[in-house]
Design a protein that fits this description.
The complex is a heterodimer of chains A (269) and B (101). Chain A has 269 residues and is of the alpha/beta class. Chain A has an eight-stranded mixed beta sheet, sandwiched between helices. With 101 residues, chain B is of the alpha+beta class. Chain B has a three-stranded antiparallel beta sheet, with helices on one face. The mean pLDDT of chain B is 72. The chains are: A alpha/beta (269), B alpha+beta (101). At the A-B interface, helix 7 and helix 10 of A face helix 2 of B.
Chain lengths: 269, 101
Amino acid sequence: MAKVVVITSGKGGVGKTTTAASFATGIASLGHKTVVIDFDVGLRNLDLVMGCERRVVYDLVNVIKKEAKLHQALIKDKRVDGLYVLPASQTRDKDALDLEGVGEVIEELKKKFEFIICDSPAGIERGAQLAMYFADEALVVTNPEVSSVRDSDRVLGLLDAKTYRAENNLEPIKCHLLLTRYNVKQVKKGEMLSVDDVLELLGIPFLGVIPESKYVLSASNAGTPVVLDDANEAGQGYLDVVSRFLGEDRPHRFLEEKKGFFKRLFGAN
Amino acid sequence: MMALFDIFRRTRMKSAAIAKDRLQIIVARERSTTRQAPWYLPQLQQELLQVIAKYEHIDVETVTVNLDTTDGAEVLELNIVLPEDSAPIRAPVIEMTSYPA
């Protein structure tokens, strides 16, 4: 049975698209057929982060308006087997997506894929609600920062009320907290909300942290999902998150400060 | 010596702790206003008003009915302010305990 997962946050700039790209790539690299859909109509960016921007011919809106077949709009990833991207369109027409059309596309994708990852636009308006409407599970991407936590809480309210599962009294969407841009040093100094703080505030299961890392930027510069570089902490963080999501019991990392040379030498805490 | 430094350190609250305190308050408030109220709440408010109006002159604006959730139990709070000639009273809290679905 195919699973629909929405990557959402409310607030913009917290790492939704970075997460959608790495999460989808990670799942596919472990052998599951996966498609990642960009729902940000008018401001598509997933194609850039995935490095396939020059191969976009048709998009989600073309498929919904029956101007193209689904298979014509799907872009096959050249690095990972079984990974496809369905880009958003650059149209200015905000109402280009409708619930029925999105539902039909997702139904069709369910026949071909194990995982359907929906990259939500920022905000809590129509686009964001469409991205989450058919979800079975949700990754709530949050930064340890006041505005992001508050917005995540609003989004959790929507996931509980304005979705197919909620409206049809089905089992609620399974929500997972993904804390991105986590800086252990600042947390230890009391300058940044900790994992425990955010968990206490939002009250949803914890999937993992992605440490703040310069490699996230260099990966998006290159159009390579950061998860493909497992030599850096952000990539390792995403790989952990994917494995945990797929049911593997992996201990949480990056929650303690890395000890420097002298601290290791003298065993100081 | 360390204790001396600690005194200086504790004079200011850590910013993460401030953030958490502020969030706890705002998140709780927003949850209570954005959460879907039960369908019967407006009707209940209307009927309660009718009963109270039999005995007291009240202003419709001064009656509020709220539903809060604390630790999984729902608390239905009814708040009525009586006109100035009689002392304002806070009606007793009617507790309706239900279990989360």
